[in-house]
Amino acid sequence: MKVAVYPGSFDPITNGHLDIISRASKVFDKVIVGVLINPEKKGMFSVDERVDLIKRVIKPFNNVSVQSFSGLLVNFMENNDSNVMIRGLRSVGDFEYELQTSLMNKKLNPNVETVFMMTSLEFSFLSSTAIKQVAVFGGCIKELVPDEIIDDVLRKAKEFN
Amino acid sequence: MKVAVYPGSFDPITNGHLDIISRASKVFDKVIVGVLINPEKKGMFSVDERVDLIKRVIKPFNNVSVQSFSGLLVNFMENNDSNVMIRGLRSVGDFEYELQTSLMNKKLNPNVETVFMMTSLEFSFLSSTAIKQVAVFGGCIKELVPDEIIDDVLRKAKEFN
Amino acid sequence: MKVAVYPGSFDPITNGHLDIISRASKVFDKVIVGVLINPEKKGMFSVDERVDLIKRVIKPFNNVSVQSFSGLLVNFMENNDSNVMIRGLRSVGDFEYELQTSLMNKKLNPNVETVFMMTSLEFSFLSSTAIKQVAVFGGCIKELVPDEIIDDVLRKAKEFN
Amino acid sequence: MKVAVYPGSFDPITNGHLDIISRASKVFDKVIVGVLINPEKKGMFSVDERVDLIKRVIKPFNNVSVQSFSGLLVNFMENNDSNVMIRGLRSVGDFEYELQTSLMNKKLNPNVETVFMMTSLEFSFLSSTAIKQVAVFGGCIKELVPDEIIDDVLRKAKEFN
Amino acid sequence: MKVAVYPGSFDPITNGHLDIISRASKVFDKVIVGVLINPEKKGMFSVDERVDLIKRVIKPFNNVSVQSFSGLLVNFMENNDSNVMIRGLRSVGDFEYELQTSLMNKKLNPNVETVFMMTSLEFSFLSSTAIKQVAVFGGCIKELVPDEIIDDVLRKAKEFN
Amino acid sequence: MKVAVYPGSFDPITNGHLDIISRASKVFDKVIVGVLINPEKKGMFSVDERVDLIKRVIKPFNNVSVQSFSGLLVNFMENNDSNVMIRGLRSVGDFEYELQTSLMNKKLNPNVETVFMMTSLEFSFLSSTAIKQVAVFGGCIKELVPDEIIDDVLRKAKEFN
Lengths: 161, 161, 161, 161, 161, 161
Hints:
The structure is a homohexamer. Chain A has helices at about 15-25, 45-55, 75-80, 90-110, 130-135, 150-160, and strands at about 5-10, 30-35, 65-70, 85-90, 115-120. By secondary structure, chain A is α/β, with parallel strands linked by helices. In chain A, helix 1 links the parallel strand 1 (about 5-10) and strand 2 (about 30-35). Chains in contact: A-B, A-C, A-D, A-E, B-C, B-E, B-F, C-D, C-F, D-E, D-F, E-F. Chains A, B, C, D, E, F: Reversibly transfers an adenylyl group from ATP to 4'-phosphopantetheine, yielding dephospho-CoA (dPCoA) and pyrophosphate.
């Protein structure tokens, strides 16, 4: 049974994230979306709110689940019997950051394998940061985030503004 | 009549910005310098101060004007009957950021065209951030910012320091 | 009257090229597609065949024409009263090559301005080289090259194979 | 049963290739090494010689096999009931080439998924080209190619020289 | 007598930094490690603490010393009769930042020469930022920072956490 | 006595090469320009012609000499009591190629240190290839190659054309 972990901030989940989840669910037996609790970064959504948004959009995938975690990612993977981590790649900037991160994780736990997927073309320019900016400035975020959570993002953007 | 918008923070305007403005003024009938009001980022100069500095240095160009704006850039362009945006490119890092931003703008308004110019060689290493650091540390900023505003930048750097 | 030149090998023209031509035709008064005669590189199509393929696909644009040229690009532009060159950008690799080429052209003729457009998302992975490989191996090239010239490319690929 | 294909030229197989094969064999149920027959490129080793070298070094992995193939990669995968392709990533240059290739393959067959692994640190500077150059100039290729095939590479380099 | 300055934040010094110091000490007659006092950035260690950590790990090198400095780097170099600055390069991101910084320094003082060394392979993924994160999350930092200062970093990480 | 080797094809030497030679001559006690004899690549100038052109332009530097060499670069350095190699860096593309080459050289001879200098701004877009193309197409190569050898390059370009 191949269990893969897909870690990130997901503040909020975007169609780019969902694209990776959907494709990974066909390559691995089980996919766990891991929402990182980062004490140094206050996001737009709380960690619990992010987990809730993800739960709603992964319903169509019966081999995908979601949990939040804190501390070292390699420890979270070990606790869930997983030695494969999935990461999306959109650009050269992503590539260099991910190369350094995967080498550090390999140093911390040589059994952990990081596997990458290129984000699908139509989502390759998406980032949670860019989407939050568009939402705060009142732009249309249709096709950028899953339809089920558009209202949640616009409501939060108003509070933020 | 081809109206092009050149958006940015311009905190402060540098010789690299002025180089793009001068070259764009020969390619398009009218150029509007758009100073973005970004509530999340407090700069060295206020937005009004930046607009004033730009007004002083664009005097030689009779087809160039300046305005500040807030909200979505594509809306600002629409209000000024412009469907062409100009951006300068200095490095690979610029390129990737601009690629993602131009694709998001295209998503928000398919009629908007982003056109890029490579910054001239002698200005390719300039950034407002680097110039502010040199000024704060008492370095010489001649040839980095237009001569007309050197004193303004040094005075502001002293307040900042 | 703003005349812009769009130079390249076009061996053959792809939907990525046509995308740039179509968008440039809305930004400039006249666009001249310049097919470079490069004695050092024997392509799949002869230069005349490439010019003919381009003529067929630019019919919908009344402000776009095509010519072949040899020698220095800056001289070809001068002979056509143009001081603006358009180039498409798909990737970091493109960016660096284009940065060096545009700086060399600026050196040869300081009046020449190179203006860049990012290739539209859906064409950002296209290159004449990749399309020729797919055609030679019998793959489907629909949506990769303009419909009008699909048969020409497949016929040439067979000869080539 | 998850079957993954690892395609390449392998002229010759390097320790970087073997590193990817070994790690992939722990992530997927079956791994097929596919040696591409490229009529346009004459290598140092013939395709059959490359297949033979690979056979010798993959003996320790009971879920790994090797075949040569010609034509489109997506067709080769379909004939082997595989919808997952593995590719190694060493550098930014690799990343951009692989991004364009994976998008073209996705266009040719939307069911094909390309999954990437970063080459392990100690092999990240290896390429068949660089190793052939070192061998032709009489340099030491220990730790660059699997021990079992060092003599084959040095013998071929002498013929080549 | 060739005096080279190796400037940085060193918050804290890593094995990547020490690798550059060791190799530079064989190329230049004297190496001065310069710890930059940056009023805008509060680090994990104070500047004095960083100088102390460096003093302990450079003991084996009799031609290497350490000082903190504030203001312009080119002025610090002039005060120490040095016109050569050493910088380490790990990635494309480093390269672009360093290219712009070295061109700005050349502008401020044409006599200053920046010389670069590629970080050794086994340290190429290290950064003070990544190491602090691992330490704060209780991960093992052996082989990431010099053995002599591991306890200092873990103690500081606890305070930080 | 610090002896540094500056290896390359130099087909022909450009002002970018001369810029690196001039700056390196101030950092190291002796600089040897090494012209690589590459059997696989036929250049515009023969190796002897390249050595002659270099001899003419390095006359102002009394600590700079030139030799051609074949085989492994690390062996050439050892024969000249040098453990420092100088390379110029112009772009991200250069950086990645040089990173892999320097790591391979380090593998072949751990005592060899590769030291890099960023090409000066005004020469950052120069390459022997681009200059040869401009010369073959009859463009002006003043300020691109040293004045002393302009006629040699134009004469050779005519033969080539």
